[in-house]
Each structure stands twice: as structure tokens, then as C-alpha cells.
Amino acid sequence: MQPLISIITPSFQQAHYLEQTIRSVLNQDYPNLEYIVIDGGSTDGSVDVIRRYENHITRWVSEPDKGQTDALNKGFAMANGEILAWLNSDDLYYPGAVSAAAAYLQQHAEVGLVYGDADYIDEDGKVIGRFPAAHTDYNRLRRGYVHIPQQAAFFRAFLWKQVGPLDPSFYFAMDYDLWVRLASVAPIRYQPDLWAAFRLHKGAKSVSEADRCWPEMLRVHERRGGSRFSILYMKYLLRRLLEPWMPFRLKLRLGIQGLAMKLDRNRKVENH
């Protein structure tokens, strides 16, 4: 028997992307999958999208909640899986992602969380870059070296029960808070395989409200006894100085990555 894996999708007013997200989960080749969708009472047609797939969704609700963190806690409280993950309603899994994560955790019993790579995609699903995933651990996380694409992360349920739930006071860095807590009790590992896609669009809080992330990360740092004389604080202060340039920096990086991908595709065409 392969372990049951529970995937949670929190959603609110995301009808435009939700169907692609649902299909990316349901089209996984993993045979023992529990899928739970928690909608926050959307009025944009999201419920109609969910109902089209409700025979294949293990459980879903559509009711007002207190936001994404609340929705995730609600979903994980319903979950029965040995392995847990969440996929936001504008992101995607690539084929084989769940099977690959399950296989890794089965082969490495000591690992509490495994994560892979993730593409950046735009509103139309076009790949525009690559998330800077890399190996990290508890000490690196405490210094602000996160490098974990949430969309490509899978963790053990017994550890969630030990360190969870998500802190409902966090709006942005609840995943960082969870990674730190998980890494404090079990090893986490990076598997350099492409598992997911992270959608960047105007309505995504990763684009429109990214400035709220670092202050919340500092709260995690302070709660664990961290000092203001730390690498994390220095990185925060430097980011504050460079904040007006951060959107330009992201666009520049994505532009360079996009150009490199285009050149690589052209090279492959010429070789054929």
C-alpha cells in the first residue's frame, strides 16, 4: 500500500485559474490521493467549477472563512493522509510530482519534508522563469535562506500534528513559519526535479503584497529567541533600502531567464 497523500487547495474568487489547478491534481498518476478544496464563499463562479469535479474531489466546502491560513488549517483538520501538501488555487502540479514526492519520502524515512523545483508562469500559463530553489535547513532558514517553493513541498502528517497548525495571525509567511518548525524537529531535503508551477499575476499576493512577508519572518525569528544583530535582520534592512527596486529586480531576473529559455529552445530546434 502506498501512503495516502492529502492535498489541500484553499481558494477565494479564483474561478479563472481554479479549474487548471484542480485538473493538475486530479491528473496525477498517484493511486492513493485525497483531495480537499476549501473555498471561502466565492461568488465568481468558483463553486460551479468545483461542482464539475466533485465526483473526483474527496471533500469540499464553500463558506466564509478568515482567509488563506484559516482555510488551510480547516483543510488539514479534515485530512487523513500520511503525507500532506497544499496547492493554491492559481498554481499547478506537473505530471508525476506527487508520485515522485511520495517515493522520496518512502525511501528516506528520516526526512520530514521534501521539496522540488517550480517554474514561474504568467496569467496564461506561459513559463517565464524558475523559482530559485536550493538546499536549505533549519539554520539557513533562520538566516532567511528559504529557497522552498511552497507549491512543490510535501511533509509528513505526524510532524504536522506535532508542530501545527499554521499560525492564523500570519497573512504571508505562514509557510516560512511552518518550514522553520518542521526543520526544527526533522531533516528537510531538496530534490532538484520540476514538480510545480508558481503563477505570478496582478492579483497574487506574492506580487501585490510581497512587502508584508519580511516583517512576518522577523516575528518568527524573534519568537525563537533570535537577535536583532543577525543575518536575517541585516537582510531585512538591506531589503528595505532596495524595496523601490525590487519589482524591477524580479522583472529583470525573469526577463533574463526567459531569454535564456528562448535561446535554449532555438538551439534545440536547430540541432534537430
Provide an overview of this structure.
- With 272 residues, the protein is α/β, with parallel strands linked by helices.
- Helices cover 43% and strands 19% of the residues.
- Strands 1, 2, 3, 4, 5, 6, 7, 8 and 9 form a nine-stranded mixed beta sheet that branches.
- A hairpin with a 5-residue loop joins strand 6 and strand 7.
- The relative contact order is 0.13.
What would a concise description of this structure say?
The chain is of the alpha/beta class and 272 residues long. It contains 11 helices and 9 strands. The radius of gyration is 19 Å and the shape is globular.
For this entry, give a set of tags.
single chain; 272 residues; alpha/beta; Spore Coat Polysaccharide Biosynthesis Protein SpsA, Chain A; globular
- What's the count of strands? 9
What overall geometry do the principal axes of the alpha carbons give?
globular
- Number of domains as seen in the coordinates: 1
CATH architecture: Alpha-Beta Complex
Mean pLDDT: 88
Helices, by number, come to 11
Give unreliable regions as ranges.
205-209
Hey, roughly how much beta strand do the residues contain?
15-25%
| Main beta-sheet strand count, sense and barrel state | 9 strands, mixed
